[in-house]
Specification:
Elements: H1 6-22, H2 25-32, H3 38-59, H4 69-90, H5 96-102, H6 106-117, H7 124-144, H8 151-174, H9 179-205, H10 211-239, H11 241-245, H12 251-263, H13 269-285
Helix pairs in contact: 1-10, 2-5, 2-10, 2-12, 3-4, 3-9, 3-10, 4-8, 4-9, 5-7, 5-12, 6-7, 6-8, 7-13, 8-9, 8-10, 9-10
Length: about 290
Amino acid sequence: MRISTHPQAMGMALGLIGVTIFGATLPMTHIALGGFSPFFITFGRAVIASTAAGLTLLLLGKRWPKGQGAMLLGAGICVVYGFPIFSSIAMQTIPASHGGVILGLLPLLTSIFAAAVDGERPGPAFWAYGVAGAALVVFFSVRESGFHLQLGDVWLFLAAVTASLGYVLSAKVSRIIPGWEVISWALVITSPLSLAATLAAMTNGIDAPTNAELGALSYLGLMSMFGGFVFWNAGLALGGIGRVAQVQLLQTFVTLAVSAVLLGEVISPATVAFAVAVAVIVWLGRKARVA
């Protein structure tokens, strides 16, 4: 492998690890909803993640990155609150596997925000692959739902929009400080609101959770909200936001697999075929030009 392509390859690898962690988010949210309200899940997972992030920063003696407050706050609002609340509401009405397919729009949305906010200029081939991958995922979604748009789909679209913008803001800061510090500081700066909202939601937001539901909430906090972003932010910064974002097309199929194992949802042969097609598009798109 040529040295010049090494950062891209490493970025893709780190992004894939992050995507694998994120892929279990919707199934875990579906499980957690059995014992917690959407609002408690949103803020409770943030408190769990903030605690882990704050302790990590403290133990390693990290100092606040001057001049990055606005960017970190914006990223925090998007990924700490925006995506979790919208996706939690959506999981009340649609299956996790279906939701995972809708989130296949994330890569295209992230590329759009990367062009608008970060100044990336993907070439025509890149956009063609990105649109093709998103079109495959959307077609799969409407095919599975009998070609009917559901309210949960709208909530998930809003979740995808906020997550995509948060990814781009996080990646911009990840070029200055390590990716794990970016999500850590974003969690810390939003922690006062997270704690206050969690305490307020405790009154009617907890319904005798089982061990599985407690475990799901812990996963959402420690992995979906914290651990996954350590790899994802680093991958976006290293390999290019638009290019690495295409790896997230595969998150749909990670979600489907986890949903089948944890929730008993069925994976059809057509799903496998779509997975292979999307994987091919991701592989081709990684070589397309991005300025």
